[in-house]
Amino acid sequence: MARKCLAPVLTILLIGHAALSLAEPWSDRITVTVHGHGPDIVLIPGMTCSSAVWDATAAHLEDHFRLHLIQVDGFAGTQAMANAEGPVVQPTVDAIAAYIEANNLKSPKIIGHSLGGTMGMMLAIQHPEDASALMIVDSLPFTGILLRVDNAAAAAKKAAKMRKKTIKQSEKAYARDQKKFLRVLVNSPASRELVTGWAVNSDKSVVARATYDDLTTDLRPELHTIKVPVTILYAWDARSGYAQVVTDWFYQQNYAALPNKTLVRIDNSYHFIMLDQPEEFLKQVDKFLGSQ
Question: Which of 42, 49, 101, 165 has a CA-to-CA distance to 127 between 20 and 30 Å?
Answer without folding.
Answer: 49
